[in-house]
């Protein structure tokens, strides 16, 4: 299984960082110009971007990538998977939150990916690693 991991420190408490990264709209900032919209709410009215929610990603009216939140453990972990994509055999995104100190949080973002075409996985993961690294650095600056 091909995978990547990006780690980023945030100068904020875990609860504040989790709150930011558990909202689909945050990824519009992190991964601009890619646009992210929630298309299905979670059953939890307090967290519409929570467990079971679905987001679409893309540009303008074309948003072919759909991701569904499959696990949400508040202030600890978020997991999601790509759904309804015939080009992807397996995809799992995991975002883990750990406290370094009361006002410093370490976020570890891991993505496992297996595309149907074998050579494509590494190419996609390389692009994702770059985008996540840059996007998380941008978000981390918002706490300074």
Automatic annotation (TrEMBL):
<dbReference type="InterPro" id="IPR019587">
    <property type="entry name" value="Polyketide_cyclase/dehydratase"/>
</dbReference>
<protein>
    <submittedName>
        <fullName>SRPBCC family protein</fullName>
    </submittedName>
</protein>
<dbReference type="InterPro" id="IPR023393">
    <property type="entry name" value="START-like_dom_sf"/>
</dbReference>
<dbReference type="Pfam" id="PF10604">
    <property type="entry name" value="Polyketide_cyc2"/>
</dbReference>
């Amino acid at each position: 299984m091909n995978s990547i991991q990006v780690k980023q420190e945030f100068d904020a408490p875990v609860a504040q960082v989790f709150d930011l990264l558990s909202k689909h709209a945050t990824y519009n900032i992190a991964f601009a110009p890619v646009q992210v919209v929630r298309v299905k709410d979670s059953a939890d009215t307090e967290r519409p971007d929570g467990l079971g929610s679905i987001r679409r990603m893309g540009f303008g009216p074309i948003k072919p990538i759909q991701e569904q939140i499959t696990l949400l453990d508040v202030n600890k972990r978020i997991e999601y998977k790509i759904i309804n994509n015939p080009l992807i055999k397996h995809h799992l995104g995991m975002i883990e939150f750990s406290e370094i100190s009361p006002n410093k949080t370490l976020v570890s973002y891991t993505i496992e990916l297996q595309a149907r075409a074998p050579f494509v996985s590494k190419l996609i993961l390389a692009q994702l690693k770059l985008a996540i690294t840059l996007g998380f650095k941008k978000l981390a600056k918002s706490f300074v």
